[in-house]
Sequence to fold (326 residues):
Amino acid sequence: MSHILVTGGAGYIGSHTCRMLASAGMTPVTFDNLSRGHADFVRWGPLVVGDILNSETLDSAIKQYRPTAVIHFAAFAYVGESVSNPLSYYRNNATGLINVLDAMRRNDVDTIVFSSSCTTYGLPEQLPLSESAAQRPISPYGRSKYFCEQIIKDAAVAHELRFGIFRYFNASGADGSGDLPERHDPETHLIPLAVDAALGSGPPLQILGTDYPTTDGTCERDFIHVSDLATAHVNAIQYLERTRDSFELNLGTGRTYSVLEIVSAIERLTGKKVPTVVARRRPGDPPALLSDPSQAYVRLGFKPQHSDLDTIIETTLRSRRQTVTA
Fold:
């Protein structure tokens, strides 16, 4: 049974991926400093409490478990925070990745799957976004992910590294049991905020702009279920084990929903009103983000199975209700 080192495996997407790895017969080894992750999310393999900025701890974990590959989630991931504190983002995200790659080289691990972001595209010139679209990130967070992609590709040329780079669109939902909820502090994602507003466990939902050039004036986004994201990472590990064919791929659905469409669907599924407050646009928000996900199917045979809007909302509802009653 192969071991996979999962940095940031105690976080939202990381923990779902660990569950999927275990279901596929692999042992996930979570490496997380728990500053933004949660120890109770680590249930399918060992937990190493460590920081990616600490090379000795990385070496120790790799020497102990001898992973065949690394899935690298560990990163700071708030756009607004990156604007106010950019150096911490470049230090943690870029220097942290370099430390991981150095530790892999020292210990003869030659495969990495990297969690990137559609924010590397910046303000799109046309939609849908394919992998060949220009990458012009507009925030320190987006630039840190873009720099990390370049670092990985340069390392691959120099050191025969196999890699998979995934550019996520909007991660959403929760696993079917509801016991791995989004648990961010602060929570910034639209769907859990809207669900909490409907359930009365959170404040009214702020709608950040109603004057965009979209169908109803609110932002439109491509939402993909977190369980589908997790499956894609398992597919990537299996693909890279079979080939030396590195890749960079979008993970999305090719379908957008507006803020008001999300609100309407939550109201339909809960039978409750979502209290809302209209606020100003958030600087730098594109009116719409839409993926062209076709290459993920061509390369990996990956197609989302859980990313219809009702499933995303229903699994979010289940997990938020469990959180409220816990």
